[in-house]
Specification:
Layout lengths: L1 E5 L5 H4 E5 L9 E10 L2 H8 L15 E5 L5 E4 L11 E5 L4 E2 L6 H5 L3 H13 L7 E5 L4 H12 L3 E6 L2 H9 L4 E4 L5 H8 L5 E6 L4 H9 E9 L12 H7 L2 E4 L3 H6 L1 H16 L7 E6 L3 H9 L6 E5 L6
């Protein structure tokens, strides 16, 4: 079969290599899956660089979420078991963690529903306790993780403010439902959000960026607000001033979604059932901005690493346009 593999760590566009290799052999409790679509994520770039919290042995295949077909014909969503990731014709995954693909979504959309939306749902509901009528601020709102949070925030009845970088991303953020959009390239984010909220700030702030975005969040969080730390796509891990959190009376809440797979897998299934219901009602639908040909996967991962993309990029096997 064909598979994209990384033989040495570095930039995705330089180290991802298209190889002819054997199909992976499932281990105990695992199943072989025929890949129908692979959702690309920022962690794929980190894996290539050797900067992710998981470092699979070399060579490995990136691709951490897929829509796939089991040997008995079931259409499923899965997180492949590295080093046999989803950027290949076949992948392996833990059988107990397979989730049924929602009928309301095509293969590309189903592949993009998993990690970003699970992260958003657990973050907003389990960790930050977002309530109807509250104001949610989403950094990088036009990206894959941010766009999921925007849709989930709207589905929960929140007013959503999206922060983006540039007019094209601003148009995307408006299109996916943001009530207010702030272009950080053209506006003072703190001043614009304070104006939009009458000086009160946001009840929940969803931050997958870190760095300057976190500094802005600390200035914009409302009384009894919650800053949700999701990731550090900006490349800088902030050092929060805890005295500031005390004085302003807000919470800094961390989210590592992968831990739920280990410590509470039943909650992951319940979340997926909720997401499937929301998809059936049309309340969430992954914004797939590009359906990428298999042989262009390395370039797509590189562009995600550089922050130039919007929504979700999904790689499809040769000859498939799901």
């Amino acid at each position: 079969m064909q598979a994209w593999r990384v033989h040495e760590n570095g930039e995705p566009g330089e180290v991802m290599q298209l190889d002819e290799t054997d199909r992976p052999e499932p281990g105990p409790g695992q199943v072989l899956l025929k890949v129908r679509a692979t959702g690309l994520n920022f962690p794929d770039a980190l894996l290539c660089r050797g900067q992710y919290q998981v470092r699979p042995p070399l060579p490995f295949t990136p691709g951490v979420e897929i829509c796939a077909e089991t040997e008995d014909g079931r259409r499923v969503i899965a997180t492949p078991a590295l080093p046999h990731g989803g950027l290949a014709e076949y992948a392996v995954a833990d059988e107990a963690a397979l989730l049924p693909a929602p009928e309301a979504l095509d293969d590309a959309e189903a592949a993009a529903l998993h990690i970003g939306y699970q992260t958003g749902w657990f973050g907003l509901h389990r960790r930050a306790g977002l309530r109807e009528g509250e104001t949610l601020l989403v950094h990088a709102a036009a990206g894959g993780v941010g766009s999921a949070a925007v849709q989930l925030g709207k589905a929960a009845g929140a007013t959503v403010i999206g922060v983006v970088g540039g007019p094209d991303k601003a148009a995307v953020a408006r299109g996916i439902g943001c009530d207010v959009v702030v272009d950080r390239h053209a506006e003072d984010v703190v001043a614009a959000v304070k104006e939009a909220t009458g000086g009160r700030g946001a009840d929940v702030i969803y931050d997958p960026v870190g760095g300057v975005a976190y500094q802005q969040s600390a200035k914009l969080v409302a009384f009894e607000g919650r800053i949700l730390v999701v990731g550090f796509a900006g490349g800088t891990v902030p050092a929060p001033a805890l005295n500031h959190a005390l004085i302003k009376n807000y919470s800094i809440v961390g989210l590592h979604w992968g831990l739920y797979n280990l410590k509470d897998p039943a909650a992951v299934l319940r979340c997926h059932e909720t997401l499937t219901e929301l998809a059936a009602k049309g309340l969430v639908k992954p914004y797939v901005s590009e359906r990428v040909a298999f042989d262009a996967a390395a370039d797509a991962v590189q562009r995600i690493s550089e922050g130039t993309t919007t929504g979700r990029l999904v790689v499809l096997p040769e000859g498939v346009r799901a």
